[in-house]
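Structure tokens please, single chain.
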Amino acid sequence: MPLPTIALLLAASFSLGALPLTGWAVRVFTRGDLRALGTGNVGVSAAFIHGGKLAGIAAVLAEIARGILPVLAGRFCFPDAPAIAIALLIPLVAGRYAISRGGGVTNAVWGLLVFSPPVAVSSGIWGLLVWGLAQRWWGEGDRARLFASRCGCLCTPIWVWVWGQSMPEFLAATGLALLLAAINFNQGDDMALSKSEQLFSLDDSLDAAICGDKAAKLSQLKRAGFNVPAGFILPSKEEGRGKREEGRGKRGEGRRDDENADRLLISNSVIQNLKSQIQNRMIVRSSAAGEDGDLSSAAGQYQTIGPVFTEAELLDGINRCRQSYWTSEAVAYRRQRQLPDTQMAVLIQPYIDSQFAGVMFSRNPLDGGSQVIIEALPGGAEAVVGGQCTPVHLEIDFSQPELLEKKLTELQSNSISVQSILTELVKQAQAIEAFFHGIPQDIEWSWDGEKVWILQSRPITNLQPFWTRTIAAEVIPGAIRPLTWSINRPLTCGVWGEIFQVVLGDRASGLNFNETATLLGSHAYFNATLLGEIFRMMGLPEQGLEFLLRGQKMGKPPLGKILPSLPGLWRLVQRERALNAEFKGDRTSIFLPALQSLEKEEGRRKKEEGRGKREEEILMPNAQFPMPDYQYLTELLERAEQIQEWLKPITYYNILGPIGLAIRKAIFRVNDDWLANDSAPEIASVRALQQLAQKLRQAAFSQPDATVSVAHLAQTFAETPGLQAEFEKWLDIYGYLSEVGTDIAVPTWREQPEIYQKLLITMAQKAEPYLAEKREIGLTFSQKWRLDKCQERALVKNEISEIYARLLAHLRWTFLEIEACGLAMQVFQESGDIFYLEFGEIQQWIRSGASVSFKDKIRERRDRLVADRDRPIPPVVYGNLLPNSQKRAIDSATSETNIMQGIPASIGRVEGFVKICRTASTDLGENAIAVVPYTDAGWAPLLLGATAIIAEVGGQLSHGAIIAREYKIPAVMNISEATTRLRDGQKVRVDGYLGTVELLE
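Here you go.
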């Protein structure tokens, strides 16, 4: 092996490496000097970053050729000594680093590819695997990339040995690998630097983790067509995080010796690029991670610099803005809000010469009320948010959109509150809130004399969580007493928590499902913020929050986002599929024995008190104990606790069953009319009472079509023991029902027999039945097959509903017994007092055995419930406070519109007079249009006598809508605040096809 040839090749390789080919390529295309740009690394990545695409491609081709030539020369000169070909790459790489200031990785990779493709490919695959693992460990970033690059270099000797089994080749490859790794550790990283100097535009889709929440939200608004000024974002630099971590302790102690550590190096080309993009004055604004976020605003924590004119001022402004991230106030704010120290991006925009500017809230920031709040001053918006001046303050109520323009014209005219500007601001506020899925927004705006510019938009963080009646109005309608809520809330929250945990698995560990529901104004609300977060975790679309807040339809979930939840969703599907079998097992082993024991206990009490007593007397304490002892009360309390234990599993079935049925109906496209609902308690009870009414009519008059008086029917009923016995039997079977099945404070049917006896006589007076027999529907074979997939679940759902309602009825009757004892002991003052206590308070009273008085507490809660029952209840509450709104009444003298729009529920058109029905026991009268706050199964008897139905809440699948269709009664749902906006005796026209209520007087 001739040494002179080897020495010549080594020297030639070093000289070849010393040629600044990449630097020449950049200089040819851009006239720039890579040694003075970025990190000073004259490499391929730097050529792309600082020289552009053409310079980068030229640099790549030059470095590929430079890496291949030594290997080919070594192979040609020493075909029997392949290790020399690898060894020649060592002086090449050394020359590149020492003279031309490059890294040599590109040369080594292509040289090895020519030397041995398997070695190069294996090293590359190994590097990619390490990169993937490093990203899982450290997350996506430069640290993972650099680690993978170094591992790829260091593993090369191993693959040389694996594929060649040659010690000389292994040693040569080891020397090359160590040199590359050493250079990599010491050389600057232009790719990392480029991320902090790369300019993003507000026209791009921005990642909030890189560009901050402020810039990301403005980007969304700009791309959606809102008036947002152009802007460019300089993301923060990740390089030097370790140094920052070390310096944070010093800053926390007040030491600022390393103040310049955060003055990031910004190349002149970046500043020049910014200045070329924005010709006139500029403003430098912060856009930190967590700033203007969903849970924190960081308002006023970071510095805004402007206007800036020159490149020097721009550079200084960027550095000052970034340094404001580490002020003691900003650090303290993040600690208090438990926000991590991450990074600061900078947003550079044109400086707007404002005639007026300010902030506006899309909703009242105090209570989430329906007012757009606008505050403005001449000049820039910083004068308003700075709090140094008193701005013009305007509150514009948009609760009645049809009157909004009139309200705007009534505002005092001045230079700021010009109607056209105010109209535009209100329009923008509502549009931006709608764009962000109904989340109230804090918006910074500016008016330059021609148009309104949106400078910033962030959530009103104190208006969280959001509470919605979208689902709660159907599940737990009406004003709720404390005892009902103290029992229903843990049952409902517990079941929903169990369902979500099945889907989310370990991801649900940080969620507090006890916050799923709350009472506001004595009405139930579900936590839309929590449910929205759960929806996002499940991969459901962004419209999920709009469904909760606005009742809009949900879109289809993107497959990529829902994939992580597929195992959990499959577990839920398995539970749903097993529900029928599991329920039947629990029905036999738990529920039927439970009901039998409760009915047996009730029969024993009846026997002790005498069979001749009225049903109401059963609820009084035993006559042998005029002053009940605490042992008897303890037995009643234990029974109430046991019933609640039985309610836990049936509540699970009562929630999952209807969900499963709804999903099955959607999947198999089964119409409601196809399902046989005769076994539903609300339908079966009316049919049974209807049959009894026909018997009464036949007994009262021999001709079926003849008219018979109410008095004669009542007399016939009183004189016919058989009919009375059948009516008592009907009460025994269906007496557990009530107008609100989930509210134990509402009397059951068997507690008010006179109402249903009167209903029986009313039914008998009419020749035509209220409920026609369900007609047979001709279905195809395919339709019958699809129906079979749903019918059994529908029947099981009805069984579940019956058991659930029976257990709740027994729980109510148990509490009435406890109340009867309390009345005798003078713990309570009047009937119904017990329902104003929470269950925990009842437990403490009975178990303590102490003499107590709840008089003041009950009076306070009763007064609050009465006030809450009559006040308007908004469908959405922002924060934990109901808006302070006044009750409104609509009449033709003050309203500019006579039509209220709702949801069509049952076709037909009727004119008539309104009757406000707050409870199902209201005397409806004849030919009245029933206006109800909600409907449930227990409302069926009342609705039978209505000529039309108007409901405040509900949709086409609500109880009221289903009942109305069954009874062929025109109905309109979802007329907000109908019980307060309408009045008794007011004449209206109800159109169940269009879903409108027209005021005729």
